[in-house]
User: Which sequence fits this backbone?
């Protein structure tokens, strides 16, 4: 069978609806904005010089920090969870995994909305705190609320790859380590952890990427007080009508992600060959 | 023992973290009052209001149309892509093409499509969302079918050809049946991803034809309403049923597939 | 076989795209101010109307269908900026699918300059006579040439009498609230209204284009941000009712004064006069029905019913005189007279300088 009639439609489709649109964004970043939106055909690099403005550089930096914090927290929470799941009997593993994914299947926006109800001043978190004689805390509309929301939204994306790499581990390796006199901590550090690095890297990428470009959670849980790069891009298109600058920002976002992707691929390969 | 407990604690805390919001939403969906912060007696009032909310129903219908359409289109395109690449596991082009929609942030794809539709002067509507969702749908279907393909035995196809079957016959009788679980899983994934997709729909839907996530977004922005609790509970019930059904389905199809080939 | 079907699907998709493109170009070439046909059968037409959520009575479509025979589809936008983005996405000549849009005066002015609006055919809207004379002399569009006012009002401070120690009298009460109200205040982010409190405190015009004045305003706004609960253009009333906040920069009509604990005040430094208008898009293929809808809304019966539903003042003399006294009694902002309103400074479009306001709002919301 010839390949082209089979791959042709799909490749054409993805070219028209993905490659060309992304190419448009790339080219718009080098044009001037029209007053009422759209672009004017005048080449310029001012959109990129504007990126260097400390205001926007700060936003990119702040977003990187928020996404990184979310990723680290997801790893700290996700790893022990995945570790315990991987050690469960087979049937219970499936149940535990489904239980991780199930809230993920309601609706992204509803999951975000739930945290408004939980974190707001008169909300359930403060009710719970008061019941044990603490609080109240003002969490909603702070960075803490944004990180909580992101963590909640993307934690399963950390747990699943970690579980996949943990469950593939040969239990005999750990036994061997134990037989050689290694304590549980030493055997974890020298055997389990290094062997699950690819899973860790994948999980980190899966959490970092959507956190970094998110604009819904900062808006709804951050009260519009903290602007992340996703909000800035959204606003250039849907508020300020400055498509060229929005495109330049989007390219900056893509550049950061590409660097991360390459770093991840490099690290994964290094660990694979060890 | 101490070590066990130390490890198990975060495990249980994770589930508390994952389910606390869900429990609050489900419980509050049965509260008679309007306040989301106090339970004021059992009532099904919000389910009634939800059933009578034209905006939500309109959004739901739109979402189902988009999800079904894009899942169908994605399944065809993605399956063909994967089969076209055949057992060739090292197809660089295909790797790139199927990976790209998964790593390109949804926001970037959303603005790309927005400027693209504006450039070709396509009037936004439901079709614009459907076409957009097919991009990532195709990629995910192709990826799943390829994984499945990598696990099938090429010698079966060779045997079929050696026995004089035409390529088409071989494809229809050998390759296709072995791919069924992959295709089904891909279609299901494309459908569910489309149902919950917000960012791209937000940018590419016509203001008159919002999908359900876009409706929910504007509701949340205009304040907290208990109808959303009822909606959340229903969605949870549906996805729970779907997960259980899918679990059953994959178990029977994976068991059934080898028999079909044999 | 399956390959063929997929090729067919893609081909159909592409063909649709091309057709859509051609269709657009077709309509573009015969653009220009068409003469409308006063005898056109509007029941053959249908309307898509974009309006703020909660800004028209919920049963408006049914009423219009019953009374005019025109099917109406309602789309919602959350902010002026959102609808502007949708309307301008394809540039002049593109069709957003919207026939009638509700936007604030300065945005109507910008849309008109962009060539996206159909001139108002006054002969098709006899009910224009019901408007206050003042409402036909508004700065952004004298004589209602491309827009028809729907509601008008001013921006002020909406507050909980039981949660503030002293009733606010100045924009400084929002910008520099007492310690007890830290994180209990919300402000608006839509460009011009974000700048308004600071500009008024500094004694500048709300339409200023001076870089110096805007920079000064930015400093004040960044200071104020430290004490804010959130930026909120849509749910500030809700938050006040729930007690999440105690004071909000607010449009008069969205201040829930029907709650006896909540009051509205216009600060002593003065404020604006804003007008939300109805405009007909040039791309509309249902312009006669669009005019009929506007005429229908200006009917005293209907316009007063709208005012009672959304609790905003309408610039319709005949309608205001018909307002239910009980509703007037319960909602103080409704009782402001046109003369009082006109003390506010009219917000107008500032042309290319609009970008300065966009930038200011980005700088304030992103800055710290």
Assistant:
């Amino acid at each position: 069978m010839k390949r082209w009639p089979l791959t042709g439609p799909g490749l054409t489709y993805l070219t028209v609806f993905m490659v060309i649109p992304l190419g448009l964004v790339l080219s718009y970043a080098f044009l001037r904005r029209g007053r009422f939106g759209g672009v004017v055909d005048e080449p310029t690099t001012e959109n990129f010089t504007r990126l260097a403005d400390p205001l926007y550089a700060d936003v990119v930096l702040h977003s990187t920090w928020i996404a990184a914090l979310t990723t680290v927290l997801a790893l700290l929470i996700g790893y022990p969870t995945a570790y315990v799941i991987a050690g469960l009997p087979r049937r219970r593993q499936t149940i535990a995994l489904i239980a991780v994914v199930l809230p993920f299947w309601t609706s992204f926006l509803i999951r975000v909305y739930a945290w408004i109800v939980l974190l707001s001043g008169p909300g359930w978190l403060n009710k719970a705190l008061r019941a044990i004689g603490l609080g109240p805390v003002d969490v909603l509309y702070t960075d803490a609320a944004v990180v909580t929301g992101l963590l909640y939204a993307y934690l399963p994306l950390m747990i699943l790859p970690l579980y996949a790499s943990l469950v593939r581990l040969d239990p005999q390796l750990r036994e061997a380590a134990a037989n050689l006199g290694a304590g549980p901590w030493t055997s974890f550090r020298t055997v389990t952890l290094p062997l699950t690095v690819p899973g860790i890297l994948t999980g980190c990428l899966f959490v970092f990427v959507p956190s970094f470009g998110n604009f819904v959670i900062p808006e709804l849980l951050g009260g519009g007080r903290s602007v992340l790069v996703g909000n800035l891009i959204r606003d250039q298109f849907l508020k300020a009508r400055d498509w060229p600058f929005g495109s330049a920002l989007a390219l900056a976002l893509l550049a950061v992600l590409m660097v991360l992707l390459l770093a991840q691929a490099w690290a994964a390969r290094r660990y694979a060959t060890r | 023992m101490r070590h066990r407990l130390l490890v198990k604690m975060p495990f249980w805390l994770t589930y508390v973290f994952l389910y606390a919001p869900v429990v609050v939403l489900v419980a509050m969906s049965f509260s008679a009052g309007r306040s989301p912060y106090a339970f004021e007696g059992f009532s099904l009032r919000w389910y009634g209001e939800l059933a009578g909310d034209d905006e939500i129903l309109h959004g739901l219908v739109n979402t189902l149309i988009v999800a079904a359409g894009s899942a169908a289109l994605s399944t065809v395109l993605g399956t063909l892509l994967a089969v076209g690449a055949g057992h060739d596991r090292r197809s660089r082009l295909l790797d790139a093409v199927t990976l790209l929609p998964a790593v390109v942030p949804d926001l970037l794809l959303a603005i790309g499509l927005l400027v693209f539709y504006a450039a070709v002067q396509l009037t936004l509507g439901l079709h614009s969302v459907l076409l957009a969702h097919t991009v990532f749908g195709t990629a995910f279907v192709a990826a799943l079918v390829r994984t499945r393909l990598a696990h099938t035995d090429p010698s079966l196809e060779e045997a079929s050809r050696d026995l004089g079957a035409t390529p088409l016959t071989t494809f229809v009788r050998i390759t296709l049946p072995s791919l069924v679980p992959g295709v089904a899983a891909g279609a299901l994934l494309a459908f569910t991803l489309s149902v919950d997709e917000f960012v791209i729909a937000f940018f590419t839907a016509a203001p008159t034809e919002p999908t359900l996530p876009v409706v929910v977004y504007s509701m949340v922005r205009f304040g907290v309403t208990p109808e959303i609790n009822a909606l959340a509970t229903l969605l949870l019930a549906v996805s729970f049923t779907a997960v259980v059904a899918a679990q059953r389905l994959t178990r029977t199809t994976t068991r059934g597939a080898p028999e079909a080939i044999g | 076989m399956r390959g063929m079907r997929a090729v067919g699907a893609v081909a159909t998709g592409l063909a649709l795209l091309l057709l859509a493109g051609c269709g657009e170009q077709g309509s573009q070439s015969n653009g220009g101010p068409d003469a409308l046909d006063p005898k056109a059968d509007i029941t053959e037409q249908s309307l898509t109307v974009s309006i703020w959520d909660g800004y028209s009575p919920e049963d408006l479509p049914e009423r219009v269908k019953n009374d005019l025979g025109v099917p109406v589809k309602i789309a919602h936008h959350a902010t002026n900026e959102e609808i502007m983005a949708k309307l301008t996405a394809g540039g002049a000549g593109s069709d957003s699918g919207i026939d009638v849009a509700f936007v604030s005066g300065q945005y109507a002015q910008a849309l008109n300059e962009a060539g996206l609006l159909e001139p108002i055919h006054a002969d098709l809207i006899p009910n224009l006579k019901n408007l206050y004379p003042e409402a036909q002399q508004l700065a952004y569009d004298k004589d209602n040439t491309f827009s028809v006012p729907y509601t008008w009002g001013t921006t002020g401070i909406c507050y909980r009498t039981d949660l503030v120690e002293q009733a606010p009298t100045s924009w400084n009460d929002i910008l520099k609230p007492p310690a007890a109200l830290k994180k209990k205040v919300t402000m608006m982010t839509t460009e011009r209204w974000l700048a308004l409190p600071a500009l008024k405190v500094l004694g500048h015009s709300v339409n200023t284009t001076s870089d110096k004045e805007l920079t000064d305003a930015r400093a004040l706004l960044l200071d104020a941000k430290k004490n804010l609960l959130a930026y909120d253009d849509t749910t500030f009333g809700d938050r006040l009712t729930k007690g999440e906040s105690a004071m909000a920069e607010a449009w008069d009509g969205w201040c829930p004064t029907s709650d006896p604990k909540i009051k509205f005040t216009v600060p002593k430094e003065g404020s604006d006069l804003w007008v939300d208008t109805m405009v007909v898009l040039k791309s509309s293929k249902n312009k006669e029905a669009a005019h009929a809808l506007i005429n229908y809304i200006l009917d005293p019966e209907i316009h007063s019913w709208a005012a009672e539903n959304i609790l905003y003042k309408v610039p319709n003399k005949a309608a205001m005189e018909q307002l239910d006294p009980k509703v007037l009694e319960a909602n103080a902002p409704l009782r402001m007279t046109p003369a009082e309103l006109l003390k506010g400074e009219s917000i107008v479009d500032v042309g290319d300088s609009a970008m300065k306001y966009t930038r200011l709002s980005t700088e304030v919301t992103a800055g710290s």
Residues 227-261 of chain B form the longest helix (35 residues). The domain at 58-223 of chain B is CATH 1.10.3720.10 (MetI-like fold). The radius of gyration of chain B is 23 Å.
